[in-house]
Amino acid sequence: MDSYYRDLSPLSPTEKANFNFDNPEALDYPLLSRDLGLLSAGHPVTIPVYDFATHARQATTEHIEPTIFIIVEGLFALYWPEINTLYSLRIFIDTDDTTCLNRRIARDAAERGRSAATIHTQYIEHVRPMYDRFIKPTSHNADLHLDGNSLISKQTRGIVQWIGNNLPKY
Prior knowledge:
Blueprint: H1 13-18, H2 29-40, E1 45-51, E2 56-64, H3 81-84, E3 91-94, H4 97-112, H5 116-135, E4 144-147, H6 152-166
Parallel strand pairs: 3-4
Antiparallel strand pairs: 1-2
């Protein structure tokens, strides 16, 4: 879903710094919904490429072909009822607050050039309140709940087991 953040290139650096990326309105939902609908109907799509350092969409795009499995990953993957109907499996991964913050600091410092202090402030002011308001309530839409503190191998086994027990055999 990261590809679908709104292009903030018209905003000033201060406006970009204060933009709340953890609100569903930060995403271009109409484009996301259209593209997922096309993929689920067997049509290829061209999706935007988002640059988190500049908060803008790049001039390049990415071509995606439809396949049997399409993974939609992101904060708001379970938020909109219209796209929830397109999924065969809905997974909610819940992770404790400390782990979330530590992972975010590691990622944003390395990949986005942000300081630990600004990441912490953003987490307290935007991330956690928006999680409580918008993300956590979507957990009821999930078919499968995973513990984000567990090893990836354990989470993967849970997903594979669920698929083996619930999805139609092809």
